[in-house]
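Extended Data, panel c. Modelled sequence:
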Amino acid sequence: MKIAVGCDHAGFPLKQVVIESVKTAGHEVIDVGTFSADAVDFPDFTKKVGEKIQTGEAERGILICGSGIGAAIAANKMKGIYASICHDTYSAAQGVMHDAMNVLCLGGRVIGPELVKVLVAAFLTARYLGDDKGGERLARRVGKIKAMEKERDL
């Protein structure tokens, strides 16, 4: 898979750990920045990650800001982007498996590098189960989310 990775200045110290974790898991990284610890606005990099997914250049994304919250809020404003802050492995996998989450948001000022490694692995190894036999319940729920998104566009 191609994974878009973006961060603001608060997430920058963990960005290289995220990138190495993605590569270790056998995936390709699309690094959209930031490329230094100079102050920047997280919505700018959130948008870059989201656009990579919207255009099909990336299948999933990982965002790192100070808390992970701002990136998650901004990402969820974009059509087709389903993002959540996850600081435990259960949520990082479950979000993909049950809710079709395609963007993992992390708090650079909240978690450390060892937790990042296991969170990224959990996120990338999980796959959405709504398309599987018996996944009708999950698909129905995700369908309702997509319907809400369409209503917003009207």
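The chain has a mean pLDDT of 96. This feature is highlighted in the accompanying rendering.
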